[in-house]
Amino acid sequence: MPSLQKLWLIVCVLIASFGGSAVAGPYILVDLSNGDVIADEKASDPWYPASITKLMTLYVAAQAIREGRLSLRSTLTMSKAAASVQPSKMGFKPGTEVTMENAFAMLIVKSANDIAVAIAERVSGSQAAFVDEMNTNARRLGMVNSHFDNPHGLPSSTQVVTARDMALLGYVIYREFPELLPLFRVAAIRIDQKKLTSQNLLLPYYRGATGMKTGFTCDSGLTMVATAERGGRKYLAVILGEYSAIDRTEKAALVLDYGFAAKGARSKGSIERYQPARSRASPLSVRTFTCGQAERSRRYKDVASVLEAKGKAQGGEASGAAQGTSGTVVIGPGGRQYTSTILHERRAGTVINVAAGRGGKVSPALFTIKVSDAARARLARVEEEIPRPAAPPLPAAVTANAPVTASAFVNAASGVGAAGTAKSVASSASAASLVLPAPSVERPIALAPSKLGTPAPGILLPRANPRRKR
Questions:
Q1: With pLDDT > 90 as the criterion, what percentage of the chain qualifies?
Q2: Nearest to 326, CA basis, from 309, 354, 350
Q3: Cis status of the peptide bond prior to 88, with omega within 30 of 0
Q4: Taking phi first (over 0 means left), then psi (-120 to 50 degrees means alpha), and beta for anything else, what does residue 250 get?
Q5: Is residue 414 in a domain?
Q6: How far apart are CA 196 and CA 282, in angstroms?
Q7: 446: alpha, beta or left, given left = phi > 0 and alpha = psi -120 to 50?
């Protein structure tokens, strides 16, 4: 078997084995240099998009700017309808004014649903008119199996996309709006002393990551459109239906890694014309696995049962961090709060170092657990609690030296440190151009810089104007 086929077989096995998933979500890999489809699975199956919908919202708004209908300096005003939309949101009061430039950053980094509605109303006059523009653009681009009902991605039974269609949209944005690409690299923004961090975990911890958009609802699972560049080679991956943020990130990393390793891989065709057969006609909900209380409670119990005996033996609680040979699991008090989701090394006999502590604080005392066949099944998948804790523990001593590769991704979802030198640079945007402000740098913490590659940038946003229009 040729080495390339062996490599892809390994990737397929790894993807299929993610946490013993009951459902393998769709994915697709595209070469951004020419639009060639390199690999895919169920790429034409309908799926609920969640917040990757906002890529179409951004595209329609960017088209409006290019057509001269408004500019990045144009202001939008939060309406009552926008302010009342469900989270994730900025939470601005009705009447608050925000520039389109800042709204774009909030849309992509914060994934703010209220901002998505405000953009829609500013661009098209109403949500309904904007949604019409979204669907008109989808048809024009060739997104033949996608339909949009809203600009934010909150649940709607008829709002569906496919991995192939979202890859096409990402490819078009990448080619038609290079001015927007710096926006997708932004890892965090600050507004009124509050820092908002992107949920795209590839940005700080995957070498060459260049961004795009993540999404989540209970029915869609965790979704992502991701891009990366290394040595002049550029790839885009779409991941749908994962059960946790780390599952999503690791699957994207595996697929992107295959692209970078598979030089000379045979193309399946151009993304503009590629239409693989469907394996199902209607969207599949993964709610049971992402938001099901019974399923989540079972995972808490599994984690707590493994840590409790050892933790008490050391005078601690079932709290602390467990590090596998290839990954990190952070457990909160009683096993009921945790941020990490994957224990990569699942073979029997694996030694896991555990730092026990109280109140989420990690003590220096370490003990070990040897993974048995029975424990392996419990530890193979540890799901992220929804909603996640406000301030999960990040034991730097445990995570600092962990390798950062596709097969050994370290969870540091909250590991963005204090802002570096930040300055706001006025944009010289005109109605016909898209010019983003120069970014400031916010460096992630907890991992050695040599492990991170180039840090992802952040930008500093000016205070929103609470002035009401009369």
A1: 46
A2: 350
A3: yes
A4: alpha
A5: no
A6: 35
A7: left
Report which DSSP code applies to 263: T
- What pLDDT does 445 receive? 23
What are the phi and psi torsion angles at 184 (to 5°)?
A: -70, -20
Is 220 domain-assigned?
Answer: yes
- Three-state secondary structure call for residue 356: strand
pTM: 0.67
CA–CA separation, 442 vs 434, rounded Å?
A: 23
* 116/214 same-domain check: yes
Largest pairwise CA distance in the chain: 72
> Considering only CA atoms, which of 84, 190, 211, 126 is closest in space to residue 440?
190
Whole-angstrom CA distances from 89 to 51, 125, 154, 217, 450 are 12, 21, 12, 14, 34
Dist. CA 378–CA 386, nearest whole Å: 19
- CA gap 374, 110 in Å, rounded: 40
What is the per-residue pLDDT across 72-99, written as a single tens digit (0 to 9) for each? 899 999 999 999 999 999 999 999 999 9
Q: What is the C-alpha separation between 326 and 343, in angstroms, rounded?
A: 7
> Which one-letter amino acid corresponds to residue 281?
A
DSSP codes joined into one string, 423-435: --------TT---
What is the Cα–Cα distance from 356 to 351, expressed in whole angstroms? 16
3-class state of residue 229 by DSSP? strand
Say how far apart CA 328 and CA 351 lie, in whole Å: 12
Residue 296 and residue 281 in one domain: no
Residues 6 or more apart whose CB falls under 8 angstroms from that of 305 comprise 378
| Counted domains in the chain | 2
Q: Residues 279, 357: one domain?
A: no
d(CA 277, CA 279): 7
Tell me phi and psi for residue 428, to 5 degrees: -105, 30
> What gap in Å lies between CA 454 and CA 449, rounded to an integer?
8
Q: Which parts of the chain register pLDDT below 70?
A: 1-24, 293-470
DSSP structure class, residue 408: B
Residue 309 resides in a domain? yes
Tell me how far apart the alpha carbons of residues 437 and 132 are, in angstroms, rounded to a whole number.
30
Q: Residues 190, 338: one domain? A: no
